[in-house]
Amino acid sequence: MVLLGWKGCKKEDWGDAMPRKPKQPCAYPGCPRLSERRYCEEHRKKVASVYDRYTRDPVIRRKYNGQWQRIRKRYVSVHPFCERCLAQGKLTPVAEVHHILPLTRGGTHEEVNLMSLCRSCHMILHSQLGDRNGKSH
């Protein structure tokens, strides 16, 4: 499948024609690095590790293991676009795999309980569900 965008060009032909969002300072206290995301690469891993260790329920944390990574990779290979955007006719690459019934409420990693989403749709979905900080698991 070829994605067409700016003036009908193929995405690989865009080159430097499309402006990128300017890099911002890393949000980690005292870090001078610039990043396209909230945290630089080094601190993104550190913040995720702290979140997993202290914020995520230990029972749930054990369910996000190597087996989950394989299930997620296989699901994304079959569903490479955000399913909510696709329903609106937009092709947005998948960023996250959502559990329809959260693991905290008895959900599983089975394909019928998964949904490919972009970051934006995932945050919107969790905010509509009333989950604190955008996610419940």
From TrEMBL:
Pfam families linked: HNH (PF01844)
An MF annotation (GO) of this entry: zinc ion binding
Domain HNH nuclease: from-to ranges: 70-123
InterPro entries: HNH (IPR002711), HNH_nuc (IPR003615)
Alphabetized CDD domains for the sequence: HNHc
Keywords assigned: Endonuclease, Hydrolase, Nuclease
Name the record gives this protein: HNH endonuclease domain protein
Annotated source species: Megasphaera hutchinsoni
